[in-house]
Amino acid sequence: MGTAEPSSTSPAGGLQLFVPPPVRTAFEWLSTLERGRWPAPPKGEGRPVLLLPGFLAGDASLTRMARWLRSGDFVLARSGISWNTNCLEPIVTSVEERTERAVQRTGRRALLIGQSRGGTIARALAVRRPDLVDTLVTLGSPILDQLDVARTVWFSIGAVGLLGTLGVPGMFSFSCLRGDCCDRARGEVTAPFPEDVRFISIYSRRDEVVRWRACLDPAAVHVEVGSSHLGMGVDREVWRALALHAAPSPPD
Predict the structure, then answer these.
(1) Which of 59, 69, 82, 227 could disulfide-link 74, Cβ–Cβ 3.0 to 4.6 Å?
(2) pLDDT for 28-46, tens place per residue?
(3) pTM assigned to the model
């Protein structure tokens, strides 16, 4: 759809160009540590919101963002993801059920925010059930190619895949990449996106995990930030972008 102007509100400022990712992540974590530094959240107006964590992470990793959104009158619904290592299809199905219950409780379509792998799950759900989703926001999510990541991540992916292939529950297997078990969900990750669902892809050229071009889904509005990959959920710059782009949809 297009690209928004990159933000420049990161606590590290221009120094980020020279700061290694772990230090940048620490700056980002500190940027929203104190509630008094939180930017004004988008207006929730009683809308449900589900936050989907990244690979090897759970709901707890997005707790601070959840609190921020609740302060804006969003109704939080948990994704139920503990480690985000399961096969894609069962996760999408589980999140679909939770989203449906949240929409039924509130009478409003949901805001979905997915970090990294969580964003690919959320996109699949938005394609599958556009009646449940008002807005999708992805944070550093490799939508165009889920394996377009840094080499340092391959060991973790391979380890989980091996454990899943050996039958360890809750782990995806190598067959999930091409097998029938996740065929439907894999297709929804890259399928044409519903026109009545807003889609914002927040990405960073300084992302040390996901190659940023994999985040540029042509169906989305692209918003560039200066965050590290791991810090996107707590970075004040990302929160400001969310506040700008996740405001309530205008009435029909």
Answers:
(1) 69
(2) 999 999 999 999 999 999 9
(3) 0.91
